[in-house]
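User: I'm new to structure prediction. If I give you an amino acid sequence, what do you actually give back? Let's try with this one:
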Amino acid sequence: MSDFNEKKSKLKNNVENFIGCERNYNEANIVLFGAPFDSTTSFRPGARFGSSAIRHESFGLETYSPYQDKDLIDYNIFDSGDLELCFGSQESALFDIEERAEQILEDGKLPVLIGGEHLVTLGSVRAVAKKYDNLHIIHFDAHADLRDDYLGAKLSHACVIRRCYELLGDGRIHQFCIRSGEKTEFEFAKEHTDMHKFDFEGLSELIRDLKEKNVPIYFTIDLDCLDPSIFPGTGTPEAGGVSFSELLKAILTVCEADVVAADINELAPMLDASGASTAVACKVLRELLLALSD
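Assistant: Good question. You get back a string of structure tokens that encode the predicted 3D arrangement of the chain. For your 294 residues, that looks like this:
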């Protein structure tokens, strides 16, 4: 068997898939994979359970979206399940995430990562940046995530966008909904990133510009961009967030451009006993997958 086929053979259908994502790997255009990792969580842990909870609770949803008039069963989406990650080593976990994303990209498919805490994004971005020299990142989040270190650690969910910046450089990271961070993070953003505080103002204009330039986009959604009244099940809730409708409109706007990889992260399902946060996360993922499918 060739190396190509050997690699493909490793990605079998998961026992439990996100609803409607039941095509085999060979025919898929989009490939889901989970990164159950939260070892650098700075406040409340539990995001490592996010990917499996989203997959399990997705069966409370319909595959059809009335928002987009699309159905997941009409598209070729494969769910490869969760990676088995080393909780004791950030670099080991990031390497495994990067390796999986790189494999998906090499096979001509679009990787969609389900976290996990936000640090998992770095592994996927490393893979995507190797393929696309002019990659831009669109980042939805309550937090700037631009610290150079957190309590001495360079690899933390509080530092993930700073590490991504070191890969991409000035003017290629676009941040929205940011409403929390150290003063030094906001000062750094003024010099090096394109930060839009509190909401999605300026997003439509940005997407129009990136589309005209045919720029490849990595799209990362920290679900705590949502207000905690809507999404309390997250490690670091921050008042003043956006609504589900605002987030959905923003996702559809971003996906008009050339999104080459994406992720959602920071659901900590056990922090919301009602299950509402997991239900919201499932619906966000459904809408993201459908928006990426055209």
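You can read the tokens as a compact description of the fold. Here is one thing that stands out. The domain at 3-292 is CATH 3.40.800.10 (Arginase; Chain A).
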